[in-house]
Structure formats: structure tokens, C-alpha cells
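mind reviewing these C-alpha cells:
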Amino acid sequence: LDSNVNLEHLELYQNLVKKIENIAHLRNLTVLDLSFNKIRLMDSLATCNFLQLERLYLSSNKITDVEGIFHLTNLKMLELGSNRIRSVPPEIASLVHLEELWLGKNKITSMTLPPLPRLRHMSLQNNRLEVWEPAFFQNLSGLTHLYLGHNNLPDLPEEFALLTNLVEVDLVRNAITLIKPLPELKKLEELWMNDNKIEDLQQISHLEAFCALKTIYLERNPMQDLGNKEAEQRYREAILKAVPHIQQIDAERVDFEVKVISDGTERHVMGIRRS
């Protein structure tokens, strides 16, 4: 690598790399991928003057602390999933251009994050979250995609309504008992809430608050009564009543009617599914 000083894209994933070293001279890097290695420390990145770096992949290593990257102010995407991280330091606020932050499959116990106004994609799936942090919603109000599945979070707080730009939300396998109606989420198209603890079928009526909803996952909540065909049918009918325009219920695409124009004449064709 010594002679490749103009290198812009470096991929060293799925090797046996233990340390981040011998790359500080690659100042033109825009993409650095060190995923699937055996890296424990990020601190050596502090000596790397990667001012053009936009995408940094460090997933599936053995990292415990987020460090050494706070001078990389042009970073747009940071992937740190499948490590051993327990918290996110407030210094991450210096990454003012960050648009995507992936922290799934770690050991994080707090949702506390500083303001990141440009962040659009945020993942904290498969962590140890049990409490909502109100400041999270104020500091990350620009989110369009939020992934919080496989934690132990309770019912949604009022502050969730601040995320008015949300298009997709993953709340799979938490401790949620209610479907909170949030009409403020006018752009929400996909809502994943399967494998929670919702018992009352009447909760489904609250889905009508989401005017743009196209896909809903609610399977394996107690209200579905999986295995009881009559109960499963009532579950499906309740969703269709609340959201008549829904396109997908769980893994099932919903049939609907479209108009096909052919040879100058119009006819109705039932059961055509959108791709």
C-alpha cells in the first residue's frame, strides 16, 4: 500500500486484521472497509488524516469503544454493527455530515445520542435497550429509517411523534403492548411490530392514523392467536378495515384492483400485484 497514495477505496474485510495500521498515508480515501476482522481498538484512526472519508465499515470486529474518528467530519456512513460497544460517546456530535449510523448487535444500554441533524438511517437493533430516551427524538428529528428491533423497549413515548419524516420503523420483538396512533407520522410506509406483546385486537384500529402505511408486520403478537384460523381471519380483517389501502400484511401481499390499458380499451383485472 505504500505506493498507492492516491487510493480512494480500500477494502480489507474478512481477513485476520488485528490492528488498524500502515494506512495513514492514504489521505484520499473516501471508503474504508475493515469489517469481519479481529480489530479491538479504533484509536489509531486518530492519526489518520482522512478528511475525504465518507464511508467507514468496521462491523463484525471486537471493538468495545467508539474512538479515534471524531476528526473525520466528512463521514456520511458509519457501520459498527456486531461489536462489543456498550455506549456511544457524545463526541460523535462532531460528525456533522453523518447520514447513516449502524450500531446493531452490540451491548448498548442507552439511547442517549447528541444532536445529529443530518442523520437519516439509525440502527440500534439487537442491543440491550429497555428505556426510551426523550432527547433521542429531539436530537435525531430528521430520521427517515429507524431500526430498534430485538430489544426490550416498552410502549412508544409521546416524543415518538417528533420523528415526522419517518418512512420505515422496525420495533420487532420488544415489550410493546399498544399500537400508539401517531397521525404526525404522515410519511410512514412500513411498520414492523411483530413478536411483541399486543393482546387486544382493538389496538389494530389505531393503524388508521398512519395515512401512508403500505406494509405492516404484526404477526406473532398474542392478539393474532396463531393457529386459530378464525382468529387469524379476524386479525387480517381488522387490519384491512383500519388500513384499506394496505399492500402487505406480514409476509403476504394483498390483492387489489388496477386498471390495465391495452389496445386503446380499458378493463379491470383483479388480483394483479404491484412489484
Notes: The radius of gyration is 22 Å. The first strand starts at residue 9 and ends at 11. Residues 266-275 have pLDDT under 50 and may be disordered. Residues 229-242 form the longest helix (14 residues).
